[in-house]
Amino acid sequence: MLRETVHAPCCTAVLETAAPVSDMLFVPGRAWLLTGHRDGSVHVWDVADRTHVRRLHDPVGPRTSVRLAIDEPGRVLAVAQRGVVTVHDLDTGTTPSSFTTFNGVVSLAVDPGGTLVAAAQGATAVVYDVATGKRLRRWNSTVIRSVRLTADGRHVLANFKDGHTVELYDLDAGQPAFVGSAGGPVRASLADPDRWIIAGSRRGLTFFELDTPQAGRRSVRADGGITALAQVDTDEFVAGGGNGQIQVWSLPTHAGPAGPEQVESVLGSGPVIALAWHQGSGLLASAGEDVTVRLWRREPAGFMTARSWGERGVLRGGDRLVERVAFSGDGAYLAVTDGGPLVRLRSPLRRTGGWWSSGPPTSRS
Q: What is the mean pLDDT for each group of 10 consecutive residues in the chain (365 residues)?
């Protein structure tokens, strides 16, 4: 059961869990935070009611990494744990399918409509049908770093650990629709499969225009490279740099020689590790290597610093860096983790409140 605490006079909440966090996400449309842990357990928390809702998966042992992925409506959740992907229907509480895949899944994705699940490990990627659990596609390439199903549910965007390559795989055709080199190790990517792919690498930004007879490639060098990307809307995205800069870029609305155009730049104080954008509130959260989380608000004059705070000590991570930041669907909460047993929750839209924390999830039946 969650216990009220008074550790600090700020509008912060802390979930204290039994094992280090390996993944976390908010359920769209609900005040639910899902946490996956390095003992194999998966928990559901109601951050509004300050309760531990239920445990979806029991602990299975130490050094067990969990990966989570969810669809846009917040109904279909996929959990990868020790070589098995389990699909949960959060509306009905049922598990419509599960399938055996490989141990140590490094990336997991659900398409926005909740019909497909993609998983990757090593040099192999697979795509499954959610309703039947049937494997639809499997392909091998160089070592895969991440996979993401595009909004149309027909393509998989993959980054490779060879450092330089991004691939758009066509699920209908069963072959790559596009393969391009970013000229440097790729750290993040975005894609509109009918228009463009954007890759952020140690050298900067690379823009591949797909709606031309031969995909155009334009590169923009950035000091410190690009370390994180977040899409703001269909025509804008945000890039975080190794030099602490956060840049806003406008995408071209039609094919032509003009690539992305930088429209704004703000400066933090350390290399950017993670970005999260909340559309409804116009808030951007950034986490840097200085163990500081910054909140930026989109104003007519551009992004303005709304708040910033240090996470060192609070997450008890010592010198560990913040790994993930995530907004709840309504923007009322921002979750921060450094991969330790604590998840810190902020209320970015208000400035008053208190701390709360829980004992280990196992303390509630």
A: 33 74 92 92 88 88 89 95 92 90 88 93 90 89 83 84 77 89 81 83 84 66 84 85 85 56 67 87 82 78 64 48 84 84 74 36 32
Q: Where are the alpha helices (DSSP H) in the chain?
A: none
* Residue type at position 100: T
- What is the C-alpha to C-alpha distance for residues 336 and 245, in angstroms, rounded to an integer? 20
Q: Nearest CA to 201 among 167, 225, 165? A: 225
Secondary structure percentages of the chain, helix, strand, coil, to 5: 0, 55, 45
Q: Which residues, listed in sequence order, are joined to residue 158 by a DSSP beta bridge?
A: 147, 167
What is the tens place of the pLDDT at every residue in 200-211? 888 888 888 876
177 contacts 137 by C-beta, under 8 angstroms: no
**Residue of 265, 221, 260 lying closest to 240 (CA atoms):** 265
Beta strands 124-129 and 236-241, pairing class: unpaired
Report, in angstroms and rounded to the nearest whole number, the Rg of the chain calculated over CA atoms. 20
Four-residue CA torsion sign, 186, 34, 69, 282: negative
Give how far Cα 39 sits from Cα of 58, 64, 338, Å. Answer: 9, 5, 16
Query: What count of other Cβ atoms lies within 10 Å of the Cβ of residue 248?
Result: 20
DSSP annotation string for 33-63:
EEEEETBS-EEEEETTTTEEEEEEE----SS
Dihedral angle computed from the Cα positions of residues 302, 306, 311 and 312, in that order, rounded to the nearest 10 degrees = 80
Cα separation, 28 vs 151, in Å, equals 16
The whole-angstrom separation of Cα 200 and Cα 224 is 11
Residue type, 184: G
- The pLDDT tens digits for 251-269 are 765 444 455 677 667 666 6
Instruction: Say how far apart CA 208 and CA 85 lie, in whole Å.
Output: 33
Tell me the whole-structure pTM to 2 decimals.
0.83
What is residue 88's predicted lDDT score, i.e. its pLDDT?
Answer: 95
What's the pLDDT at 8?
A: 36
| Among 201, 205, 180, CA closest to 260 | 205
Asked if residue 125 lies in contact with residue 175, where contact means CB atoms within 8 angstroms, the answer is no
Which tokens go with 215?
């995909």
191 token code pair:
């894609």
